[in-house]
Amino acid sequence: MSSKPRTLYEKIWNAHVVERRDDGTYLVYIDRHLVHEVTSAQAFEALRLAGRKLRRPDLTLAVPDHNLPTTARLDAEGRRIPIADAESATQLAALERNAPEFGVRYIDAVAPEQGIVHVVGPEQGFSLPGTTIVCGDSHTSAHGGLGALAFGIGTSEIEHVMATQTLLLAQSKSMEVRVEGVLGRDVTPKDVVLHITGVIGAAGGTGYVIEYTGNVFREMSIEGRITVCNMAIEHGARAGLVAPDDKTFAYIGGRPMAPKGADWDKALAWWRVLKTDPDAQYDRSVVIDAADIAPCLTWGTSPEDVVPITGVVPDPASFADPSKQVAARKSLDYMGLTPGTLMQDVPVEHVFIGSCTNSRIEDLRAAAAVVLGRHVASNIRQALVVPGSGLVKRQAEAEGLDRVFIEAGFQWREPGCSMCLAMNPDKVPAGERCASTSNRNFVGRQGPGSRTHLVSPAMAAAAAVTGRLADVRTLKPLGVEA
Amino acid sequence: MKQIHVVEGRAIPLGLKNVDTDVIIPAQYLKTITRNGLGKGAFETIRAQPGNVFDDPENAGANILIAGDNFGCGSSREHAAWALSDIGIDAVIAPSFSDIFSGNAFKNGILTVVLPQDVVDRLLEVARTDPISIDLQDQTVTTPFQDRFSFEIDPFRKHCLLNGLDEVGMTLTQHVAIAAFEAKMAGERPWL
Ligand code: SF4
């Protein structure tokens, strides 16, 4: 073993190289493969056509999420309610057929553990530190919050992993994003990652694996780290990583698929060395002062279009880059916003609390703390709370959070991707505006013509009760929460 | 997979930056279980605008697309590459591509050519009236006006595209190395 200091990324990478090829690419072993219904059908089909087997069904876990309606799934007699959209039903049925045919573990649509694939993986103890994790979904980077090298892949790569349990990859460069200092009041992990995206840009991390370092991430909860890494892809990074620590190990211990007994001890010994060596060099470093981060949100149609909630809609002419000026003009036109408008003066008609970015129990607690004792404003047409998994839902119900939301006028739904993307019945109608805890504000993302403002769960709750984009700090707490 | 040597023809001068995969193929078209027929949804929001570059008769039959920075960002959907294939695109030229998109494009035999912004600007200008030509073997883009620009490409990708190789089949021939790695892991990291 060489004694050259190495980054966390290099350590995980090196531990998974099967072969370095002459052309400089690597054959890399994949420890965990998550599968959902949208991107897998063509890969299963290709295996079938070529007469190939799925090499390691034991390392593969499938769960439906994107297409599932979030309304009740069983009728009064406990029978499955058929899915109205024929194409969604076909895609879901294909996964339900393919999983057993190829021997893949499958959490079905009505299982208590069902949920968004990136919520389910960590929750089940399937996602572990130091593993390579892939899924046919760009937000796979979320699992980096546990110290896993996790990234999204396309369907041909899914087929490659299914057949060989490996991928052919080029090594990425490494970037450190260090945030040090004290976060202000009501500044959440979502605000931290939106701020980072605003600073480095939507393509700022392209070609890099980013390690988030500094006391802010050390002090952050595991769920918060997952939120941050989830959006690593929104600043272009291949993957995001936070070094695993005692908090990570405590989070994983005892989960259904986590190692047990002697295996746990061995795993822990290896996980403890998973940190960047003191003298290791990153290819690029960005340092951010925690004090500069405010509760923030997006104004445009790229996740880099970030302003503090106290800010105004920017003037496109204020951008130095001429192509950004053009993009900003288009964005504002699409978003129906005028430069100079105070963000807090912008009314919304929809609020969505959910998605793999912000649908875990801490997110629901943060939103409920703002909602408690208040009511959804009269101009709000839809206010949805969609837990990330059945287990999150039950936990929230045990804590009485469902009552807080329902009594305030929110809808309390079944787990799934919901309004994060327009593939299931939950959509934002054209020309209407949504404060959303999801991760993408792209044109049409929440439905054709939909207008999205990305916010934290607390800010989404503030928007729901005020009927506009609102600064959560100006809402005095009414409830018992500190 | 089909082999690529030279891609020659009219190019669609899109030029936009940050074209995400939701723009290339909106989510409502992802509900398919096959790879074909996605062209009908390709660039739907852009094509809804009158006078857009895709429906310009000048560009009928174009097999090259020219775009701005960060083409293919956003969702990992390979449907974006399938949609481009379905509308007959064999190559995309841009100053930069998202990592996932360029991988997906490559696996579907679409050549992604990275060139600096000033070169892309020049090609956008040429594309309005004339065809351009991409030679993969020589790694050059040329125009009828004697422009000649070199580009870099990963040697492995070049090799696969020139020979039309199937990556899964190639990796399966390395099953001995993969099995050896798995055996080693069973000893070192038995919890996996
Ligand atoms: S919640 Fe949204 S971002 Fe997450 S997996 Fe589902 S569709 Fe993708």
From TrEMBL, chain A:
Pfam families: Aconitase
Enzyme class label: lyase
Keyword Lyase: yes
UniProt keyword Iron present: yes
Pathway as given in its UniProt record: Amino-acid biosynthesis; L-leucine biosynthesis; L-leucine from 3-methyl-2-oxobutanoate: step 2/4
Classification via SUPFAM superfamilies: Aconitase iron-sulfur domain
Aconitase/3-isopropylmalate dehydratase large subunit alpha/beta/alpha domain ranges (all copies): 10-467
Cofactors (names): [4Fe-4S] cluster
Enzyme Commission number(s) from the entry: 4.2.1.33
Alphabetized GO MF terms: 3-isopropylmalate dehydratase activity; 4 iron, 4 sulfur cluster binding; metal ion binding
Cofactor info, note text: Binds 1 [4Fe-4S] cluster per subunit.
Binding site for [4Fe-4S] cluster: C356, C417, C420
Keywords: 4Fe-4S, Amino-acid biosynthesis, Branched-chain amino acid biosynthesis, Iron, Iron-sulfur, Leucine biosynthesis, Lyase, Metal-binding
Top-level taxonomic group: Bacteria
GO biological process: L-leucine biosynthetic process
Reaction catalysed by this enzyme: (2R,3S)-3-isopropylmalate = (2S)-2-isopropylmalate
HAMAP family, alphabetized: LeuC_type1
Family: Belongs to the aconitase/IPM isomerase family. LeuC type 1 subfamily.
Subunit field text: Heterodimer of LeuC and LeuD.
Purpose of the protein: Catalyzes the isomerization between 2-isopropylmalate and 3-isopropylmalate, via the formation of 2-isopropylmaleate.
Protein name: 3-isopropylmalate dehydratase large subunit
Name of the gene encoding the protein in the UniProt record: leuC
From TrEMBL, chain B:
Function description: Catalyzes the isomerization between 2-isopropylmalate and 3-isopropylmalate, via the formation of 2-isopropylmaleate.
Biological-process GO terms, alphabetical: L-leucine biosynthetic process
Organism: Sphingomonas populi
Listed name of the protein: 3-isopropylmalate dehydratase small subunit
Cellular component aspect of the GO annotation: 3-isopropylmalate dehydratase complex
EC primary class: lyase
Single GO molecular function: 3-isopropylmalate dehydratase activity
Pathway of action: Amino-acid biosynthesis; L-leucine biosynthesis; L-leucine from 3-methyl-2-oxobutanoate: step 2/4
EC number per UniProt: 4.2.1.33
Keywords annotated in UniProt: Amino-acid biosynthesis, Branched-chain amino acid biosynthesis, Leucine biosynthesis, Lyase
